[in-house]
Task: inverse folding
């Protein structure tokens, strides 16, 4: 793979944890965008994210660091850093050095996930992730989740949104109606079709699936079960990414009965993703693919996706 997209990381919002992974006063090591980071939840319940290696002598704040109020304390010499990166306490110093600070990352917690904003030039967010009104309500179950580390580039995953032709072969799904459009930072697929189930059944469904930026996909599906599906992929480095998947079902009648559907539903979804993963990890990315009239709007999707990368310069396509 060559060009801008393989020598840069995209700008936008990226999921780095499900909320439950970082309890109050909890610390979590993160490795994304080729960087070591530390996430911690303060006494006030807010998640902060800093560079992991202490400005003092390089200890990893995520390896033994502890939360004190709303700051994190280094395990080596107990220097403490607040959420904006400044060192606010050194137990044995009369004066804090002006350079005693960590890079602070812009973080949000929305819909039960912790998101990090990445921009190679340090620009602030140009858009926000929308709130799911049903999340956390009594009428819907919480996220059922799964996670994969995948050897691929994010653009391989994004292209599935426009790739109409892979549904029958890879996912055993017949597509009756397929729509696609882009608007600013969003790209949306609308589908009506029939999923041919392993037990011989057929699930007729319609779905609306939107990328909000380059790494956060949300699907709303109406079929045998009403559900939201979250697919969030975040670059670890230029060779691998973490893909997080979440499914949230609407309770139908009895809560326990609906909960009983979750494991079976997730099993089918994971099987579908694992079919995709086998292809993503073994394919070659073609900059100029030979396409036919039934493939779907792949070129339109590629043009949309390029906006999240810096254009021009020595590594531009």
Result:
């Amino acid at each position: 793979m060559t060009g801008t997209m393989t020598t840069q990381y995209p700008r936008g919002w990226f999921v780095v944890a499900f909320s439950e992974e970082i309890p109050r006063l909890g610390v979590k090591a993160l490795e994304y965008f080729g960087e070591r980071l530390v996430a911690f939840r303060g006494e006030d319940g807010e998640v902060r994210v800093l560079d992991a290696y202490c400005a003092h002598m390089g200890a990893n704040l995520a390896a033994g660091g502890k939360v004190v109020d709303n700051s994190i304390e280094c395990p080596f010499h107990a220097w403490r850093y607040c959420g904006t990166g400044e060192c606010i306490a050194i137990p044995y110093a009369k004066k804090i050095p002006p350079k005693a600070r960590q890079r602070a990352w812009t973080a949000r917690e929305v819909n039960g996930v912790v998101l990090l904003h990445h921009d190679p030039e340090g620009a602030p967010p140009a858009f926000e992730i929308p709130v799911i009104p049903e999340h956390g309500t009594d009428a819907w179950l919480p996220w059922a989740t799964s996670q994969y580390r995948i050897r691929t580039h994010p653009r391989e995953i994004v292209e599935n949104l426009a790739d109409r032709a892979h549904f029958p072969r890879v996912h055993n799904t017949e597509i009756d109606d397929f729509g696609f459009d882009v608007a600013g930072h969003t790209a949306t697929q609308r589908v009506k079709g029939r999923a041919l189930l392993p037990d011989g059944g057929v699930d007729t469904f319609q779905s609306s699936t939107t990328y909000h930026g380059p790494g956060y996909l949300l699907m709303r599906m109406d079929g045998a079960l009403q559900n939201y599906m979250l697919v969030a992929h975040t670059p670890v480095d230029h060779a691998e990414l973490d893909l997080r998947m979440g499914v949230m079902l609407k309770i139908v009648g009895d809560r326990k009965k609906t909960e009983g559907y979750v494991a079976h539903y997730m099993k089918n979804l994971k099987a579908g993703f694992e079919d995709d993963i086998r292809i993503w990890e073994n394919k070659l990315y073609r900059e100029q693919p030979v396409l036919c009239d039934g493939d779907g709007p792949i070129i339109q999707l590629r043009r949309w996706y390029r906006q999240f990368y810096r254009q021009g310069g020595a590594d531009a396509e």
In short: Confidence is low (pLDDT under 50) at residues 312-317. The longest helix spans residues 255-280.
